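Possible regression after last week's pipeline update?

I re-ran a chain I had predicted before the update to compare outputs. Posting the input and the new output here so someone can diff against the archived version. Not blocking, just want to make sure nothing changed silently.
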Amino acid sequence: MESVRSDAAAQAGDSALTVKILVAGGFGVGKTTLVSAVSEIRPLRTEEALTEKSIGIDDTTAVSSKTTTTVAMDFGRITLPNGLVLFVFGTPGQDRFWFMWDELAKGALGAVVLVDTRRLADCFASVDYFERRGVPFIIGVNRFDGAGRHTPDQVRDALDLSSDIPVIDCDVRDREDAKRVLIALVEHIMRTMSGSRQAVTY
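New output (post-update):
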């Protein structure tokens, strides 16, 4: 993983300000799709085909068209209009790959937790992970066909989140929409860091 970060830094330029962020959430929620949609380089993906061995382990009920799964991580890079370079790491969604999360989370300043409202409980573990570690995060409600529409406040209440955590409706297949989510995360990180400095000052 260090080589991935080093190579990306070299491509981005040594003088660029870089930020590492994570994209998390349950199985089949759109993490790989988001990373692929926004990355300005060819994204690194570690997907493997779903086989009969995953029957009874991976619940594909709501994502019956899904044929692959991330077994390590996704990686992409995007440069925002202000010159800030984001290194975007997608986490694996299944419990059996969670041993990798601590390594992926090292040095991350924030995270996007993607949500499918048809399977809201699938994101609870991701929310809990970042809350316990004090990592700023936002919620991205990915629009799936057949999923009901809910207001940000309804989603926030269902996840028992504080009012300061942004909830963004999005279609992660759309580059501009996915980019909007990442910008919202960066803004949230900046507000959180500013609030922390003020708290220390006073």
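Follow-up from reviewer: compared with the archived run. The chain is about 35% helix and 25% strand. Marking as no regression found.
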